[in-house]
Amino acid sequence: MKCRVLIALLLTSASAFAQNAATLDETAHFLAGMPVTGALEPLTHDPTWQEHAQAMNEAWTRKEQQQIWPIRQWMQANAPQYHRSNDTVFYMFSGPDFLYSSIFFPLSSNYVLAGLEPIGNVPDLTQVPPEVLQADLVSLRNSMNSILRFQYFITKEMRADLGRGNVSGTLPILYVFLARLGYTIADVTNVSSPAAGVKITFSGGEQPQTLYYFKTDLSGGNSAFLRWCAARGPGLSLLKAASFLMHGDGFSGV
């Protein structure tokens, strides 16, 4: 009898915890400095979060005006067949830069991003001590400073800012981009094949879309990851000039 009562209490406790936990989408909105409801809403009254939200709003408004809208308009006028394509996007040496892959190719069914940056972690923010969460928000904002001001991440800065703490790595940055671009996150799963990574299922329209980020070394040629990509091609590719390394022997297999 005692065993049954204990099991019932545990189940009730687990159910209550699940109801009180923030959803993935709420978490993304909170990190992005956007309004939230549910379990995280009380945390938005903290002055530190309000400062974070104001800074993110200002940075995103500038980004939209200076780059996001002009790129979308240019793609619609000059490369509409690619802008409307649902082919898989391969973005090597990307780090957590989902932003530009989505701006150029918003309707892709699958986005495959790869880099050396760690996957990281986003815990249940309702369980993070307030002083720790405040520091995490500052680190997140600092790590995104260069991409929101310019067109790229400064890897050393990002590693320094997001290499420690509860909110770490590329995952929180991906959350911010998904939320700010108007997507709804449905599921997040860690994967181990063809390399360590994360799979995010999201939607912004009628069809679900998938974002993969893999932490992997792209040098050395015929890796399991590159074979996995080849099996899903042909598709669309995105590269930044500063990351064009394929002329060297070490990256000729990409």
Quick overview:
With 254 residues, the chain is α/β, with parallel strands linked by helices.
Sheet having the most strands = 6 strands, mixed
Q: Which value, in Å, is the CA radius of gyration? A: 20 Å
- Principal-axes geometry comes out as globular
Helix content: 40-55%
Strand order in the largest sheet = 3-4-5-2-1-6
Unreliable spans: 5-18
Kindly state the mean pLDDT as a whole number? 85
Structural class: alpha/beta
Got a strand count? 6
- Give helix and strand order, one letter per element, not per position: HHHHEHEHHHHEEEHE
User: What is the count of helical runs?
Assistant: 10
What does this structure look like?
Helix 5 links the parallel strand 1 (89-91) and strand 2 (110-115). The chain has helices at 2-20, 24-31, 47-78, 80-83, 98-104, 130-143, 145-149, 155-162, 171-180, 224-231, and strands at 89-91, 110-115, 184-191, 197-203, 208-215, 236-237. It is globular. The protein has a six-stranded mixed sheet. It is α/β, with parallel strands linked by helices and 254 residues long. The longest helix has 32 residues, at 47-78. It has one domain (33-241). Residues 5-18 have low confidence and may be disordered. The chain contains ten helices and six strands.
